[in-house]
Amino acid sequence: xxxxxxxxxxxxxxxxxxxxxxxxxxxxxxxxxxxxxxxxxxxxxxxxxxxxxxxxxxxxxxxxxxxxxxxxxxxxxxxxxxxxxxxxxxxxxxxxxxxxxxxxxxxxxxxxxxxxxxxxxxxxxxxxxxxxxxxxxxxxxxxxxxxxxxxxxxxxxxxxxxxxxxxxxxxxxxxxxxxxxxxxxxxxxxxxxxxxxxxxxxxxxxxxxxxxxxxxxxxxxxxxxxxxxxxxxxxxxxxxxxxxxxx
Length: 247
Ligand SMILES: [Zn+2]
Known about the structure:
Strand content: 15-25%
Radius of gyration: 30 Å
Structural class: alpha+beta
Number of helices: 7
Order of helices and strands: EEHHHHHEEEHH
Strand order of the largest sheet: 3-4-5
Bound molecules: zinc ion
Number of domains: 3
Helix content: 40-55%
């Protein structure tokens, strides 16, 4: 059954209603209480009923009164849209800087101690105070940078995990390497290889810092990572055992 969608008629402003589009559907919105009704309530009788029952004190107001309120509602919508768009841009800029800090292997505090003060000063000198205020909204504090890097790392892990799961014929391989750093701690690195979208892909899967790198330690680490993040541990555990048997 096809449900008929009602269209807003500008004369409905005399009942105190303007219109708003939500998910591609036009709906009536009360200019007094901002309540959005269903598309079916676009009928004059229903809008009039809302005005008389909910706002009886305004039922005899003229068209100009409702138009004034309608313009205020539209202005509020614009401010709210601007705020949302600005918030998105500010978050995107913060993620961009966090990514650069991570790829350049700089300390997380460089954002608040160097990048932000320099950016603000440059904006003030070249573009003025207004632009400086906009840049100041980008959060580059130590904790924010740390959180953004962690979010991006988790997202990459999830993406790689999904690609491995959907690898052609369910096949993939992993390669492990261990070495000892200057502090005599053992570093374990795990790489993976799989087929995705018809192409062979190789990724760095994860790394781990260990006190010892006995076969059982490595087995436990890889098994834990695989069950938490990617695949049924059995295949992975088998691969680790084989790797160690070959040594
Ligand atoms: Zn209302």
